[in-house]
Amino acid sequence: MLYVSDMSSGDHYFSASPGSDPKLRPIDVRLADRDLTVTTGAGVFSPDHVDTGTAVLLANTPEPPPGGHLLDLGCGWGPIALSLALGSPHATVWAVDVNERALELVARNAADLGLTNVNAVRPEDVPAEVAFMTIWSNPPIRVGKNELHSMLQTWLPRLEVGSDAWLVAARNLGSDSLQRWLDTALPGFGTTRAATSKGFRVLRVRRHAGQ
């Protein structure tokens, strides 16, 4: 998810423990072709709606793999993770974030929707042996290139061979430079532009066979 500040408290979405009043509230959303009510709150990214970047990502990705381990990297309150879990009820979905309130919201929303296949965890709590059939992410561009690149270099190599990651980034925040970096920084991977919509690019990153 892209960086956003809570101006009243100084919190931002990648605060580990937001100090603001949670201000929990229901919102109506459409995920995986279903009209749903979920819970969001202060101190997480885009608490009032599914943000445009995430909506563009969800509109331009194929059906998720039916099984295996699937990753939402930077899950926020959970629109991507919930979409993956709804679309692939027999898969295990890992919703990963550093924000404890975001993880609490994902877990709550999954439980309220009757989804038992979502693990909402901090990055260090994903077992090292887990490899992913796909990764979907609206990554935190505004944390800075060094942090962003380190995060992608950590998680993209955990793709299964022949599998894809799907990333969304705003054009005015460097989506094209991110694509160029991905093309050079990760041997054995190939990056293509899958879609452009509403000022965002969707990038497909494939781990090639034999790598």
Sketch the major β-sheet: 7 strands, mixed
The total of beta strands comes to 11
- Beta percentage is 25-35%
**Individual helix count:** 5
The SSE string, one letter per element, is EEEEHEHEHEEHEHEE
Describe the protein in words:
Mean pLDDT is 90; it is low at 1-15. The protein is globular. It has 5 helices and 11 strands. The strands form 3 sheets. The chain has a 7-stranded mixed beta sheet with strand order 7-6-5-8-9-11-10, with helices on both faces. Helix content is 25%, strand content 32%. It has helices spanning 52-59, 79-87, 100-112, 145-155, 175-185; strands at 5-6, 11-12, 25-31, 34-40, 69-73, 92-96, 118-121, 132-137, 159-170, 189-197, 200-207. It is of the alpha/beta class and 211 residues long. GO terms for molecular function: methyltransferase activity.
Tags for this entry?
Small_mtfrase_dom; single chain; transferase; methyltransferase activity; alpha/beta; globular; seven-stranded mixed beta sheet; 211 residues; methyltransferase; Methyltransferase
Write the layout of secondary structure elements.
Elements: E1 5-6, E2 11-12, E3 25-31, E4 34-40, H1 52-59, E5 69-73, H2 79-87, E6 92-96, H3 100-112, E7 118-121, E8 132-137, H4 145-155, E9 159-170, H5 175-185, E10 189-197, E11 200-207
Parallel strand pairs: 5-6, 5-8, 6-7, 8-9
Antiparallel strand pairs: 1-2, 3-4, 9-11, 10-11
Organism: Gryllotalpicola koreensis
Protein name: Methyltransferase
Domain Methyltransferase small: 36-203
